[in-house]
Amino acid sequence: MSVTQWTILAAALATYLTRIGGYLILSRFRSVHPRVEAALNAVPAAVLTTLVAPAMLNAGPAEWIAIVVAGLTALRAGLMTMFLVGTAALIALRQLMG
Amino acid sequence: MTTTTDLPASPLKDFLTGALHMTPLNLAVVPWAILAGSMAVDSGLTFAQSVAMSAMVFAGAAQLVTLGLLNSGAGVITIIVSVFFITSQHLLYGLTLRPHVRPFSPLQRAGIGFLLTDELFAVSVAGRQRLSFAYLFGAGLSFYLVWVLVSWLGAMFGSLVPNPQALGLDFLLPIYFLGIVMSFRKRPLWLPVVLVSAVASTLAYKLIGSPWHVTVGAVAGVVVGAIFGAADEARQ
């Protein structure tokens, strides 16, 4: 096999290890410490925030306004409505400002 | 778009509901899959290697970093270690989803593990549906098929497609992820966790660079949860 093929295989194995690793680590323990439990409860908000915040750095006024509109919509409406409103705002603002 | 409650629960219905709930993310990931396919070809991989990479690694950031390291002549060990850390947020996802995955058979766990992505995790924690195997499989498999098929198109026609940013599609994922973050706003410690993760990930993005900001920001937020969450519980 070529270096490229080995590299693809290696990257695939490393990624799969992280995907399956979380199940394997804790399945060795019968009960979970409250502090670990509290930490795990914070995971969804913490991780998903890291996928939003830095994207703002590379963005401009159109994206900033669209994300604020989407965030405000989320206070009143469900996920799908919020996504559609945010997307519509983004497209409209990019047309206006671009 | 919500689930129909008048039909009895069945694996097929769960599977389709999962695929349905994944639809916005299946659309939002299209520009990134085009990028993954066309970047692989641009980096000198053959067409077959480019598609195989998306089918086997199935992680955009890890694929782009692998291509960069491959072109810079890095060794296989360096690439394994880098990819492991770049995708290490999956460890946290697996830990968080463990109570739901525990009843699954080993083969089912291995399969859902392979399909675990930022996007599948986001749909899982949105709390719209009980997390049966069929639901997770429907959501994960539809996302996988979109990723591989669109990467294939990207590898074939990538040079014909304008920069994804110009199409205005590149910002849909942040909008969707914000929606999920907002849906957690009633949870204890939501604001401090979100603020700390936002600041830490933005700083890491500036100082270390993408995609390390994901793990750095996530760990910072989780530490806040560990310190103050446990203290809250002790007081009650």
Architecture overview:
The complex is a heterodimer of chains A (98) and B (236). Chain A has 98 residues and is an all-alpha fold. Chain A has helices spanning 3-26, 34-41, 43-50, 53-57, 61-76, 79-97. In chain A, helix 5 runs antiparallel to helix 6. Chain A starts with a helix and ends with a helix. Chain B has 236 residues and is mainly alpha-helical. Chain B is 75% helix and 0% strand. Chain B has 14 helices and no strands. Chain B has helices at residues 11-21, 23-28, 30-42, 47-56, 60-71, 76-86, 89-101, 106-115, 118-125, 133-157, 164-167, 172-183, 190-207, 212-235. Chain B is globular. The termini of chain B are far apart. The relative contact order of chain B is 0.14. The interface between A and B is large, with 67 and 97 residues.
The oligomeric status of these chains comes to heterodimer
SS element count, helices of chain B: 14
SSE string of chain B: HHHHHHHHHHHHHH
What fraction strand of chain A? under 5%
Average pLDDT, all residues of chain B: 87
Separation of the first and last Cα atoms of chain B: 39 Å
- Average residue pLDDT of chain A: 88
Largest sheet of chain A: none
Query: Mind describing the biggest β-sheet of chain B?
Result: none
Number of strands of chain A: 0
SSE ordering of chain A? HHHHHH
Radius of gyration of chain B: 19 Å
The 3D shape of chain B can be described as: globular
- What is the share of helical residues of chain B? over 70%
Distance between the termini of chain A: 48 Å
- In which range does the helix fraction of chain A lie? over 70%
